[in-house]
Amino acid sequence: MEAASEEKLASVSDLVTVFENSRAPGAGPGAHTLEHHHPGCRSPGPEGPGEKPGAGEPPGSGTRTVSRRYLSSLKNKLSSGAWRKPCQPSSCSEPGTQEPEKRIVQELLETEQAYVARLHLLDQVFFQELLEEARGSKAFPEDVVRLIFSNLSSIYQFHAQFFLPELQRRLDDWSATPRIGDVIQKLAPFLKMYSEYVKNFERAAELLATWTDKSPRFQEVLTRIQSSEASGSLTLQHHMLEPVQRIPRYELLLKEYVQKLPAQAPDRADAQKALDLIFSAAQHSNAAIKEMERLQELWEVYQRLGLEDDIVDPSNALLRQGPLLKISFRRRDPTERYLFLFNNMLLCCVPRVIQVGAQFQVRTRIDVAGMKVRELTDAEFPHSFLVSGKQRSLQLQARSQEEMLSWMQACQAAIDQIEKRNETFKAAVQGPEGAAQRQELQAEELGLRAPQWVRDSMVTMCMRCQEPFTALTRRRHHCRACGYVVCARCSDYRAELKYDGNRPNRVCLHCYTFLTGHVLPADREDRRRGILETGSSAAAERSLVCGFLQLGGEKWGKSGPRGWCVIPRDDPLVLYVYAAPQDIRAHTSIPLLGYQVTAGPQGDPRAFQLQQSGLLYTFRADSEELRGRWVRAIERAAGGWSPGDPADGDLSD
């Protein structure tokens, strides 16, 4: 048996010798040949399903690239193990003379010897000759060669100098030490280095295809090596698949070894621990494949979105994408939109008219942090749901109940995940003060998040004052805090909203009072107040003179109405005319500066007139005394006088 092992090791040594001799100066293109084969053992070849070279195909006649589809399917095959057809060692071993577990160890050693020979071909032949050609001819960069082969040199050194010798020594000494678990357990953690190689595999395949077409010297080196017998008439891409497949083979062989061991075998505990470590390394490789596919899919999505800086983030995960209908607040018919749901944001997009570079344009972005989703009961738009965030809200309609539920579940899963992460962070950094502040914020939703806007078609009158809307004089507006449809008068207020970065937004009176604490509009400082919007009752308390006057003249006619007239102390050069003492808005304001005060028509002792540049106003007081007070106050205002002291010149009754 020892003689058989020595013969097998000699065959691998011969293979390596052939490779080394072929690299000697003066070796021709056909120098890479195998002169010795072990009887019954084929030259190792990592052909995938349907990728075996044809019988009549000349060596190196064409480059067979590894497709992305095959790489994607490889992940599932690695996980299931169903793809593997283990080497049959019956022709290489003495039948009926070995224990089952030793036959498995023998197979492990044989496949490891063939694998090291394949790594030697990749690292010492393909890699070194391409690197020497790059240094000598400068036809292609050295960095390209290093990127293609990644950390393959480290993998080769590990297996050739450590793993294979340990296996060989243990099998040679099997009669004294019938165990293999401790060896694999000691070396298995180093197998995690395969993750880097697997991650880089697709990029390496793309670089290989690119430079094969781009550089004739690069292609010449590959063709010369691939056409040799040492390469087995296989392309470099096929040889590079062998490391991707190797760890799952370790797992399957070791699992079979553990099953064949007797229950009380001394190697059973170590072998089980070694199997767990191999499984962890296999998971590392599978995770690397998944990560590679995730990044590739994410990059393709980012390219469709135009690679905008505030969107591109390699740590994101795409959860769902697809078309939905957006229910508009202005239009009656919903519009087509395309949505991308990531783990941290929802993007509502429209197709670009000219699709050069980017395919979609982002119209609305809603961060998942603070987002809420709920179903809507709308007879006009079935299968609709609301997505509301801190910045915006969207009413969306699906084409079926199943599609709506699927989108809602995807959104809710993203919300739950980010809330779980935030709660973990808050629990670590927040004290009792933070908990109290959180409860206070939960009690005030208004202004913290974007509201659901009421559609224009759902209302015919202002939702605050109940006045009917008209096409010209009373138009529809939306309160940015509650989402109600209100008229201009009821929404002529501005308040800072936290969800919009504390910028002032148009709000209704109800929301303005809640958000600012101001009971009356006159108390606020940020409302755009018209010149007539000075409350008569408030102005009377701070006025120089106020009272009823009979209005007449060209503006009001000979027998005009009675008006409540006020000259405020804080605006002493203007006369305000109200319909009643409690009105908030004045009907008319008259700037008094420059006016002349004259006697009333037909010698009426209680009347007086204001005249300037063709304008004529006639007023009639209830008594001559009141007329005198009004005339003195107006004459002072017309001359530009302003009271310096609150008690100076009070002419009110």
Unreliable sequence segments: 1-20, 22-68, 77-97, 428-443, 521-529, 645-650
CATH fold naming of the largest domain: Dbl Homology Domain, Chain A
Biggest β-sheet strands, sense, barrel: 7 strands, antiparallel
Structural class: alpha+beta
User: What would you report as the Rg, rounded to the nearest angstrom?
Assistant: 44 Å
Strands of the widest sheet, in order across it, are 4-3-2-1-7-6-5
Number of helices: 16
Compute the number of structural domains: 4
The average pLDDT is 75
- Principal-axes geometry comes out as elongated
Mind telling me the CATH class of the largest domain?
Mainly Alpha
How widely separated are the two ends? Answer: 128 Å
| Secondary structure tally: strands | 18
CATH architecture of the largest domain: Up-down Bundle
Strand content: 15-25%
**Share of helix among residues?**
40-55%
In short:
This protein is an alpha+beta fold and 653 residues long.
Describe this structure in words.
The chain is of the alpha+beta class. The chain folds into 4 domains: 202 residues, Up-down Bundle (Dbl Homology Domain, Chain A); 105 residues, Pleckstrin-homology domain (PH domain)/Phosphotyrosine-binding domain (PTB) (PH-domain like, Roll), CATH 2.30.29; 61 residues, Herpes Virus-1; 104 residues, Pleckstrin-homology domain (PH domain)/Phosphotyrosine-binding domain (PTB) (PH-domain like, Roll), CATH 2.30.29. The protein contains 16 helices and 18 strands. The protein has a 7-stranded antiparallel sheet with strand order 4-3-2-1-7-6-5. Helix 3 packs antiparallel against helix 9, helix 4 packs antiparallel against helix 8 and helix 8 crosses helix 9. The termini are far apart.
